[in-house]
Amino acid sequence: MVAEIINGNEVAKSIRAEIKAEVAKMKSKGIEPGLVVIIVGEDPASQVYVRKKGEACNELGICSETNRLPASTTEEDLLKLIDKYNKDPKFDGILVQLPLPKHISEEKVLLKIDPSKDVDGFHPINVGKMVVGSECYLPCTPHGIQELLVRSGNDPKGKHVVVLGRSNIVGKPVACILIQKAPGADATVTICHSRTTNLPAITRQADILIAAIGQPNFVKADMVKDGVVVIDVGVNRINDPTTKSGTRLIGDVDFEAVKLKAKAITPVPGGVGPMTITMLMKNTVHAAKVHHKWKD
Ligand code: GUN
Question: Residues 156, 238: one domain?
């Protein structure tokens, strides 16, 4: 079997067209959704993500501002800035790019963001709502994975989903979303991580395997069963002297080998990445609707 390649760019494009039409409708009634992205320090991967978020806003007609702060910014100054944006009605969404420099508490920062502007879905109030299955901002990468599965014809209902990785940004929330009693969910979920005993024995049971462990080419062909659906969340930059830049992005999955066994697989880049940003746009538009009491 050679896998179908799940094209995240294509799926993202069709969702973005839906969002763009909604934004145009809102703007015709004088409502302009707004997103502010705050980045502290010079992490190169974060710089790329933040630039892409700004570009997506421009493409869809969402007002955006990027606030780039030096790595030396104090926690107090960052908290004050968040408070300023909490009070500014121009911005419906506030996103603080992670990771933060070590001297700043991620927990304090996430708590400071007004939950109604928390388009990342990282505030404990939104995390709690997600766990109990009430309406909230879902975190963008896990929500993007769910949309990608459903829109590519791989509904997780009744399937055994194995999640590799237990981060607060991907592993834990994607497991939580996919076990909900809800359309696009209803899966049986196992979470594995670096301390899991006999990991390949578990990954081989997966109907759907979600790899989010941050190790290049970690998932080998002998770790999956025939017909598996693979979602590769990894974004690992490796040296490759054959490219112009001297580096190349690869996922957590040995793509060339695993695609020969899988039913469907996402590439890196062009799989989950574009979906993450698209769900951020969706959350921002939703936030604007809530703030302006918009009725569809
Ligand atoms: N760093 C890596 N992924 C994310 C994300 O989804 N949101 C934020 N704020 N930071 C990230």
Answer: yes
Question: Same domain, yes or no, for 96 and 158?
Answer: no
Is 11 part of any domain? no
- Structural domain including 78 reads 30-114
Find the catalytic residue in 92, 118, 120, 252: 120
Residue 200: what residue type?
Answer: P
Question: How far is the centre of ligand 1, averaged over its atoms, from the C-alpha of 213 (Å)?
Answer: 15
Distance CA 262, CA 251 (A): 16
Q: How many whole angstroms from 277 Cα to the centroid of ligand 1?
A: 10
Give yes or no: residues 66 and 185 share one domain.
no
Q: Is the CB of 120 under 6 A from ligand 1?
A: yes
Best mutation site among 120, 272, 276 for ligand 1, i.e. most ligand atoms within 8 A of its Cβ? 120
Residues 68 and 155 in one domain: no
Q: Are residues 269 and 146 in the same domain?
A: yes
Domain total of the chain: 2
> Model confidence over 242-284: pLDDT tens digits?
999 999 999 999 999 999 999 999 999 999 999 999 999 999 9
Q: pTM for the full model? A: 0.97
pLDDT tens profile 106-162:
999 999 999 999 999 999 999 999 999 999 999 999 999 999 999 999 999 999 999
Atom 4, ligand 1: residue with shortest CA distance: 98
